[in-house]
Amino acid sequence: MTADLSGNLLRPAALHGRVSDFSTGISAVNDTTAPAVQSQQGALAGELIKFDNVRKVFPARGTATEVSALHDVSLSVRAGSVMGVIGRSGAGKSTLIRLVNGLDKPTGGRVLFDGVDVGGLTGRALRQTQRQIGMIFQHFNLLSSRTAFDNVALPLEIAGADTATIAKRVNALLDLVGLADKRDRYPSELSGGQKQRVGIARALATEPKALLSDEATSALDPETTRSILDLLKTVNRELRLTILLITHEMSVVRAIADEVVVLEGGSVVEHSDVYDIFTQPRHAVTHSFFANDAGRQLPEDLKARLQPYAAPGGQTVVRIVFRTASADEAVLSKLTRVLSIDINIISATVDTLAGKPFGWIIASIASSSTSQAIAFFERNGVSTEVLGHVA
Ligand SMILES: Nc1ncnc2c1ncn2[C@@H]1O[C@H](COP(=O)(O)OP(=O)(O)OP(=O)(O)O)[C@@H](O)[C@H]1O
C-alpha cells in the first residue's frame, strides 16, 4: 500500500452530484518522508482488519484491581464488509475498536490493519495508518468553536493539505452527507443527526479504507438513527468502505451489518452472518438481546403483566423465530397435533433479512407445557426465547 489513499476507494459514478470531487490528491500532502507502511505478504486477500489472539489487560491502579478486558479474541473483517459487534456494557466493545486505530495497544496477540501490525507502529508510521481509519462517536466529538466546514477540514489541515484541496474535498463531503447548506453552522446550531453527519464527513476526509463506529447512533432518536444507518450503508456500498461498528442494539446490527460478533466478558461468544444470528442464535447472551427487543415491543397491557417467574396455571410468553415464510404453520400445527399443546398467537411478523425470508411469532403457551414445546421447536430447528410469564 502506498501513501496514496485516494486510489484505494472505488469512485461511484453518482453517489451524489459531486462525489467525483472526492479524488483531491490528498496523497500529495501526506507524510512522504515517513517510511511507507507496506501490506504484509501474510495478509489474506480481502481481509482488512484481523484480530489475532488479542488480549487486553488494564493494570491495577490505586484501589482499582486489574481488568482483563479482552481474552484471546481472533476475528477477521473482510474488506468492504460491515461487521457489527454487539455486547452488554463492559463486554469490551470500545476496547476492541480502540486497538484497531492504535489508540490502545494489545497486551498480547496482534491487531493487523491491511496486514500491518498496528500495535507495533509509532510516530509517523502510526499516523499514516490512522489516516486510513476514520472514527465516529456517540457524542460526535465535534469542536464547538469550529463550523461544520472547519470540523470536516480539520484532518486535512493536520495532513497539510492546501486551501484549495481542502475546500474542494470538504464541500464534496458536506454535499455527500446532505449538509451543503449547513457548512457555516456551528455544532450548537445543528441537530443530533446533523452533528453525526458532520462526524461522518470528517471521518471520511482522509479517504479512509475503514470506518470505526462507536455507538454512533445511541444518542439519536429512532428515525434519525435510521437515516444515519442508511448513510453509513450507502458509503459502505458506494465507496467500498469497511465498517466495524459497535452497538448494544440488535436493530442497529440488523439495519447495517453483514456479519455479527457477540462479545461477552471480553470473549467472542458468537460470530455468524446477520441472517443466522437473527434466525438461529446459539448463545444465551444473544437470545437475551432478542428477548429484550421483543419484550419492548409487546402490547403495553401485556408488558405491564409480564413476570420473571411462572405462576401455577399461568402462561409463558415466547418468541418463536422461523427461517422460512411457510414453515410456521406446519410446525405450529404439528405441535398442537402431536403433543396436544395449544398455542395462542399474540402477534406474527414476516420480513426479509439479507434477502432471505424470516418471521417470528409472539405467542403464549401454558407454562406447564413450555419446556416440552421449546424442546420440540429446537428439534425442528426453530429458535425460541422466553419473554416472561403471566398469571
Ligand atoms: N482505560 C481503562 N482502564 C481500566 N479499565 C478499563 C479501561 N477502559 C476500559 N476498562 C474496563 O475494561 C472493560 C471493558 O470496557 P469497554 O469500555 O471496552 O466495554 P464496552 O463493551 O465498550 O462497554 P460500554 O457499552 O459500557 O461502553 C470494562 O470492565 C472497563 O471497566
Key structural traits:
six-stranded mixed β-sheet; 2 domains; cell membrane; single chain; translocase; 391 residues; 32% helix; nucleotide-binding; 14 strands; Rossmann fold; alpha/beta; four-stranded antiparallel β-sheet; binds adenosine-5'-triphosphate; Alpha-Beta Plaits
Describe the protein's topology.
Elements: E1 47-58, E2 67-78, E3 82-87, H1 93-100, E4 108-113, E5 116-117, H2 123-130, E6 133-137, H3 148-158, H4 163-176, H5 192-204, E7 210-214, H6 222-239, E8 242-247, H7 250-256, E9 259-264, E10 267-273, H8 274-279, H9 284-296, H10 300-305, E11 315-322, H11 327-339, E12 343-353, E13 356-366, H12 370-379, E14 383-390
Parallel strand pairs: 3-8, 3-9, 6-7, 7-8
Antiparallel strand pairs: 1-2, 1-4, 4-5, 9-10, 11-13, 11-14, 12-13
Helix pairs in contact: 3-4, 3-5, 4-5, 5-6
Bound molecules: adenosine-5'-triphosphate.
